[in-house]
Amino acid sequence: MTFEPVLLANIDKHDSHTLRVYEAGGGYSALKKMLTQSPGDVIELVKSSNLRGRGGAGFPCGLKWSFLPKDHPGPIYMCINADESEPATFNNRILMEQDPHQLLEGSIIACYATGASTAYLYIRYEYPRATKRLQAAIDECYERGYLGKNIKGSDFSLDIYLHRGAAAYICGEETGLIESLEGKRAWPRIKPPFPAVEGVFRKPTVVNNIETLCCITHIADRGAEWFKSMGVPADPDNPRDAGSYGPKLYCLSGHVNRPGCYEMPLGITCGELIEEYGGGVWKNHKLKAAVPGGISMGLLTADEMDCPLDFSGPGRYGCLGLGTAAVTVMDETVSMVDFLHNTSRFFAHESCGQCTPCREGTQWAYSMLKRIKAGKGRLKDLDLLLEIGDTIGIMPGTTICGLADGAAWPLKNAIRKFRDEFEEYIRRTNPDGYDVTEPVAALPVVELH
Ligand SMILES: Cc1cc2nc3c(=O)[nH]c(=O)nc-3n(C[C@H](O)[C@H](O)[C@H](O)COP(=O)(O)O)c2cc1C
Ligand code: SF4
User: Is the torsion defined by CA of 419, 382, 298, 340 positive or negative?
Assistant: First the structure.
């Protein structure tokens, strides 16, 4: 497929992160154009583009903006979510390090449309290079009048503050982020109220992802029809499907010949990404499985490579969704017991502990997988693990945030799609105890670091 990158168009230019290079390529002309329109018109433009959030949930962006209270007398805030902690996801980092002004332009337009006069760019602590480049880019914007009072002679004023995160996965969940920004532990809030009604400092707040805001720059520049000319249209038989439009950054990692970040219209299949862009599985090995969008999304088997990587594709293959569109390839040498042991360890470590099903469920899953891996597993453990997977999360309605759903899907997918391998491992490593049904002692408290 021939496709000219848009989001990554600048990244290979020398000094691509500077205002000089960005402006030379036409940068900030979209902002100037938007400032001549009313904020309401900009929201309508974004709504009509059908842009869906790139941070994981795929919520329609313009619709989210329109939830802000009308004629709100007090401040409205924007939170720019640069926490990017989903394993194997690095597209936001590339955008921030290599083209920070593309992000800032989209963010300023988003603030103009929503009426936000202050934006907080919450960046994960482990991104020092992106932090440095963003701060330099913000400083350049103040000097050139793209930030501060009366931007480019308009009556719109905006300040953007860079805020380094607290180095935890849960800081990326939008209300965990807000709590952390307020100086507290990043414990997600019960919703409703959603941030659009009550967010930072209990004021109306919009939270958007980095790639979402970069898309805003191009929608403002090229229009909604251009954006909708790419991707997968909405399913006419499904009134809840909002379609999957526009370009998307796919991160590709693991056992693949050419790992990297690839820009494509939404809807490319997982197989195409791995074979055509990633150059196939490394060392001439066979493919065993692939994570479709960060480990929270679950697993695709080698027979499921025709799965389209759009907002509804992975769901049709039993996965949670598209997530961050970060694909991790596993070749035939990977043990699913190892995969699940590692995955469960991550979620047990990252659960914030507020909700009992998530706090206890992720710990028990990890503890059981540790025991299985150590050759003390029982066949019964597989059903217990599935029971945990089926009962923790927002979807079954037992937790405050989606971290628990993210912990559940790898459990459910790995055991349901690779059950024979788990059973064979348990029989082989625990021949005398695999069919024990009475309780067994838990392993000692586990070291998670
Ligand atoms: C556990 C968890 C971690 C998350 N981490 C991130 C993250 O690092 N970056 C991000 O943009 N969204 C993350 N999200 C999604 C945010 O809560 C939110 O939906 C998103 O920032 C909204 O932006 P968007 O509409 O532009 O996608 C996370 C969600 C959960 C449940
Ligand atoms: S689901 Fe897990 S991470 Fe989310 S609030 Fe509850 S305990 Fe915390």
Answer: negative
Fold of 19-229: Rossmann fold (3.40.50)
pLDDT digits (tens, 9 = 90+) for 9-42: 999 999 999 999 999 999 999 999 999 999 999 9
Which ligand has the nearest atom to the CA of 174? 1
Distance 329 CA to ligand 2 centre (A): 28
Nearest CA to ligand 1 atom 10: 55
- CATH of 245-331 given 1.10.10.10, 1.10.1240.10, 2.170.120.30, 3.10.20.600: 3.10.20.600
Q: Would you state the pLDDT for residue 334?
A: 98
For the Cβ of 405 lying below 6 angstroms from any atom of ligand 1, the answer is no
185 token code pair? 């532990």
Residues 363-371, mean pLDDT to the nearest whole number: 95
CA distance 355 to 266: 35
pTM of the model: 0.96
85-127: per-residue pLDDT in tens?
999 999 999 999 999 999 999 999 999 999 999 999 999 999 9
Residue 205, strand partner residues: 77
Q: What is the pLDDT of residue 445?
A: 57
- From ligand 1's centre to the CA of 175, what distance in Å? 9
Please check whether residue 362 is in contact with residue 370, taking contact to mean a CB–CB distance below 8 angstroms.
no
Q: How far is the CA of 253 from the centre of ligand 2 (A)?
A: 27
Q: Which helix (H) or strand (E) holds 29?
A: helix 29-35
**296 C-alpha to ligand 2 centroid (Å):** 14
Atom of ligand 1 nearest to the CA of 64: 25
Nearest-CA neighbor of 179 among 193, 162, 196, 200?
200
